Write a sequence for this structure.
């Protein structure tokens, strides 16, 4: 069995308004940061998982992302995988 | 109808389950039974309410974890059999997360948790969930949510409009919902999801009775 560290990034789709991102952008400007064109907030999920090789682990992560970690009606996801 | 029983689902974090039960039993004399979310035996209930609250603490996304409970798995057969399911607030979020209704509920546009009474236009008569006779009617129901902004893609919205699946629209959109949507119905008409709380509008002493009709319609065949 191989063990992998997976980092999943879940983002709101570009077409979905992100009010928390907008509020944070507004606070960033108040802090004095200049030049911020866009600020959107997503989630990062870290998973340690074992399986027989990278392909099997990718299948499991695809299922998790598609069915649980992200709601694909409103969110996109991507992930990176590192063998431990 | 004497034995007609409405199952009120209880998840860890549900907090409107007792309100729903009170409204059905106390105001409408309809028998209820609490269904723990780990139960998958729906054989002795005739309709189901998924009540409001914060199932599983709204972890990950509202309704995302509740969707995997044994009861929600069993709900597929129940819905296919034509029995009626009403999802209120968090119950609506669970119905969209589990795919019984299209779209999703996301954070209110102004980020506020909104607790208020809202005026709603009854849009569709499908399923007989609302008393809208011949004329366009308006009702007033309470809302209480932080993540009630209905979102769907334009194809889904067109389908909702074309098939008369939009049940309720806000008169003054409080949360930024697409097309002012406050509640939708499935194609068969036996599943309704809405953000407003009909169970909190079933007695004049607490501000109105516009929710009675919807709860009463659970006993329709």
């Amino acid at each position: 069995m191989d063990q992998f560290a997976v980092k999943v990034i879940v983002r709101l789709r570009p077409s979905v308004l992100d009010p928390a991102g907008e509020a944070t952008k507004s606070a960033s400007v108040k802090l004095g940061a200049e030049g911020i064109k866009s600020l959107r907030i997503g989630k990062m999920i870290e998973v340690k998982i074992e399986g027989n090789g990278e392909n099997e682990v990718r299948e499991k992560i695809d299922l998790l992302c598609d069915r649980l970690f992200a709601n694909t009606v409103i969110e996109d996801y991507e992930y990176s995988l590192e063998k431990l | 109808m004497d034995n007609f029983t409405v199952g009120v689902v209880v998840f860890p974090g549900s907090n409107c389950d007792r309100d729903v039960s009170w409204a059905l039993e106390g105001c409408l004399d309809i028998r209820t039974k609490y269904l723990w979310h780990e139960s998958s035996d729906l054989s002795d209930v005739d309709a189901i309410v998924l009540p409001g609250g914060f199932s599983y603490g709204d972890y990950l996304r509202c309704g995302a974890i509740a969707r995997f409970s044994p009861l929600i798995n069993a709900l597929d057969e129940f819905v296919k059999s034509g029995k009626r399911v009403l999802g209120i607030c968090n119950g609506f979020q669970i119905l969209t997360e589990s795919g019984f209704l299209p779209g999703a509920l996301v954070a209110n546009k102004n980020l506020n948790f909104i607790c208020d009474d809202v005026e709603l236009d009854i849009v569709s008569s499908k399923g007989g969930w609302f008393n809208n006779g011949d004329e366009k009617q308006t009702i007033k129901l309470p809302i209480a949510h932080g993540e009630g902004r209905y979102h769907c893609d334009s194809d889904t919205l067109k389908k909702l409009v074309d098939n008369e699946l939009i049940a309720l629209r806000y008169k003054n959109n409080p949360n930024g919902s697409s097309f002012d949507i406050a509640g939708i119905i499935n194609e068969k008409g036996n599943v309704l999801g809405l953000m407003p709380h009909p169970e909190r509008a079933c007695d004049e002493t607490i501000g109105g009775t516009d929710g009675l009709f919807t709860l009463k319609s659970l006993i329709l065949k």
About this structure: Residues 54 and 75 of chain A are 25 Å apart (CA to CA).
